[in-house]
Task: inverse folding
């Protein structure tokens, strides 16, 4: 618990909690509903963290006091309490691995089909379903920001917003190329095909983003949305696609009711992506100095999902694997994510 104290920085979180509580009682607090909701979500997370820490610390103090009394009839109860506390501290120890600057934030996740034609677009839809199931298992809120249907099946790309506790901390483990090997349902000869998809994740930065984008660097297109969205969205060109020409970053939004709302949302997402791009570049430059950097290109899949001639999902970064491919594709990803987080902490300490 002493070692975790410096990681969680409970005094700082307690101070921030009190400041946000005072802010939430101001008369004009709800004048800006979006900002107010962001504050309330952060307030809820801080309350949970501080409460968990304080209650666990009190339980340990109480157990120590009882143990010092050395009553024989308390031995069984104390053993049970010690085992429970060990589990609580272990969970807190793992949570300490989610101590990055943006790990506690909500996150955007994007899936893009790559090499493999129709099979790749079908694979992209399978991955999207996998992440939606994962979020559902954890009770997270999910919003589909944009989705582009495939030519014959599946999807070409999709972007979702996932809201919940430490969402980005977990989803950052999914960034990179995902490879699928299977007997193709789209091949009349039923041959084995290999498909690739790229998964991106970036934090939903809640504070104002201090990043200026030159309007001349933007290419803005409007189109009719595809998929769910309501009749108003379907009949009018309300969907917006923005391309940042210097970097080639493309974002789109189609879930809002008006073109102006979709444009504002897309611009916000673009700023977050460019900010995350800057951060990744800094991390990659540092990793290259350490001789550890591997690009997320088609030849460097972070995870392989083999459905034929055998069944296995294996993460190439951590060597963690599972033979229960169906469970993984149904959203059972926690062990893969936790293995990645553990390896990241180990690399940082070495």
Result:
């Amino acid at each position: 618990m002493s070692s975790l104290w410096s990681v969680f920085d409970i005094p700082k979180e307690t101070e921030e909690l009190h400041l946000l509580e005072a802010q939430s009682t101001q008369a004009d607090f709800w004048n800006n509903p979006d900002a107010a909701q962001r504050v309330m979500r952060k307030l809820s997370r801080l309350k949970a963290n501080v409460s968990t820490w304080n209650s666990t610390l009190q339980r340990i103090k109480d157990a120590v006091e009882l143990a010092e009394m050395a009553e024989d009839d308390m031995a069984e109860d104390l053993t049970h309490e010690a085992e429970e506390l060990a589990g609580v501290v272990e969970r807190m120890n793992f949570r300490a691995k989610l101590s990055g600057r943006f790990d506690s934030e909500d996150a955007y996740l994007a899936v893009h089909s790559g090499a493999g034609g129709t099979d790749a677009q079908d694979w992209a839809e399978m991955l999207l379903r996998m992440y939606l199931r994962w979020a559902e298992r954890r009770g997270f809120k999910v919003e589909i920001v944009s989705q582009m249907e495939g030519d014959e099946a599946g999807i070409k790309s999709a972007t979702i917003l996932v809201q919940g506790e430490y969402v980005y901390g977990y989803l950052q483990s999914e960034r990179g190329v995902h490879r699928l090997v299977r007997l193709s349902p789209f091949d009349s000869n039923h041959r084995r095909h290999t498909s690739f998809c790229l998964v991106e994740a970036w934090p939903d930065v809640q504070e104002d983003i201090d990043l200026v984008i030159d309007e001349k660097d933007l290419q803005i297109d409007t189109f009719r949305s595809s998929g769910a969205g309501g009749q108003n969205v379907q009949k009018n060109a309300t969907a917006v696609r923005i391309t940042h020409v210097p970097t080639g970053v493309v974002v789109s939004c189609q879930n809002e009711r008006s073109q102006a709302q979709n444009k504002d949302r897309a611009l916000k997402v673009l700023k977050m992506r460019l900010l995350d791009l800057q951060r990744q570049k800094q991390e990659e430059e540092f990793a290259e100095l350490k001789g550890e950097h591997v690009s997320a290109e088609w030849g460097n899949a972070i995870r392989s999902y083999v459905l034929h001639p055998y069944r296995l999902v294996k993460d190439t970064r951590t060597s963690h694997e599972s033979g229960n491919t169906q469970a993984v594709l149904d959203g059972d990803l926690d062990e893969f994510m936790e293995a990645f987080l553990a390896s990241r902490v180990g690399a940082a300490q070495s």
